[in-house]
Design goal:
The chain is an alpha/beta fold. It has helices at 10-15, 17-26, 41-47, 80-86, 115-125, 165-177, 191-201, 215-223, 234-242, 255-258, 292-295, 299-316; strands at residues 2-5, 32-36, 52-55, 70-73, 93-94, 150-153, 182-184, 227-231, 246-250, 267-271. It has 2 domains: 2-125, 3-Layer(aba) Sandwich (Rossmann fold), CATH 3.40.50.2000; 150-316, 3-Layer(aba) Sandwich (Rossmann fold), CATH 3.40.50. The strands form 2 sheets. Strands 3-2-1-4-5 form a 5-stranded parallel β-sheet, with helices on both faces. Strands 7-6-8-9-10 form a 5-stranded parallel β-sheet, sandwiched between helices. Helix 6 (165-177) packs across helix 12 (299-316) and helix 8 crosses helix 9 (234-242). 46% of the residues are buried.
Length: 321
């Protein structure tokens, strides 16, 4: 068995797709088990090549049965994640170098590295080639979800990454008047924010899908959407995986670390932070609420990025859903 740890969220799993594909290609006849939250199972099925999800609630003890032939840490730099995998008594552990965990093998961690390339580099260091551009997800059938809509996703679990609901509403309202069929998505706890955005944008209550879609339905919605507008969160990574045009608002972490591939013009990453990769640090930020780099993104810039993304689609000859 090949055991892979990635006990995080939607965007985290989406950015690990190239590394997971590399492991599948390297070990085609072994069982590939992914230790991740159970609710991510629908997305794991869309990645393909994962034989089973081992439901994992954070970095808790793993019940793997027999020791794995190989354990791979795609979760973090250690030491906790290293210790967790080492406790399964694997034949071999692939992970970043972490002397604090007694693991001196592997490459050095780089805080400023893009998340996709980080895990590809880990595997390449161990002579397992991984293609960072291999991000595509299987496209689910639309079934009962609307097709060809523009998705606005105003929510995020991280307060610093939140763009103003009033600005999301301004964007949604302007696009609706231009003929976009708008929907507003989010988790159940984000439904109030989604309703606020829809109300301010003049959208009907039926446009609010927050709390009404499971992960499988959300993936299908994004896969068959016209456009996605969101902060740096899981929905943005689904758009990349499906090639759905997107505008993603970044802050406080710049797109150089989590953004869509720079060579795909239908995905526009907006960043109003410093020219250098300063990360969350900002002299005007007290650590509370939205980061200044988010507050600095104006509505007109987002609308211009929408035009750029859709122009890229037209110039490529592709037809959006």
């Amino acid at each position: 068995m090949i055991l892979v740890l990635r006990a995080l969220g939607v965007g985290d799993l989406a950015t690990a797709v190239p590394a997971l594909r590399a492991l599948r290609a390297a070990y085609p006849d072994r069982e590939l088990a992914l230790a991740a939250p159970g609710w991510l199972t629908p997305l794991a099925e869309l990645v393909g090549g994962i034989d089973r999800v081992l439901p994992t609630d954070g970095l808790t003890a793993l019940d793997v049965g027999r020791p794995p032939e190989l354990a791979v840490n795609l979760h973090g730099r250690g030491p906790r994640s290293h210790h967790l995998l080492a406790a399964t008594a694997p034949g071999r552990l692939l992970a970043f170098r972490c002397p604090a965990a007694g693991h001196r093998d592997g490459p050095e961690w780089d805080d400023r590295e893009h998340e996709v390339r980080r895990w590809c580099r880990l595997l390449s260091w161990h002579d397992l080639p991984a293609d960072p551009g291999d991000l595509a997800l299987a496209r689910p059938a639309p079934q009962r979800i609307p097709v060809g809509v523009t998705v606005v996703h105003p929510g995020t679990k991280v307060p610093a990454k939140r763009w103003s609901p009033s600005r999301f509403a301004a964007v949604a309202g302007r696009l609706a008047r231009r003929g976009h069929r708008m929907v507003v998505t989010g988790s159940p706890v984000e439904r109030a924010v989604a309703e606020q955005v829809a109300r301010r944008a003049g959208l009907p209550p039926a446009a609010v899908l927050a709390g009404r879609t499971g992960l499988a339905e959300l993936a299908a919605l994004v896969a068959h959407a016209r456009l996605v507008i969101s902060g740096d969160t899981g929905v943005a990574h689904l758009a990349t995986g499906y090639g759905t045009p997107s505008v993603v608002l970044f802050g406080p972490v710049p797109p150089a670390r989590w953004g869509p591939p720079a060579d795909r013009p239908r995905h526009r990453a907006l960043w109003a932070g410093p020219a250098t990769d300063a990360g969350p640090g900002h002299p005007a930020w007290d650590g509370v609420g939205a980061h200044p780099s988010m507050a600095a993104l104006p509505v007109d810039r987002v609308l211009a990025a929408v035009e750029e993304a859709e122009r890229a689609v037209r110039s490529s000859g592709a037809v959006t859903a």
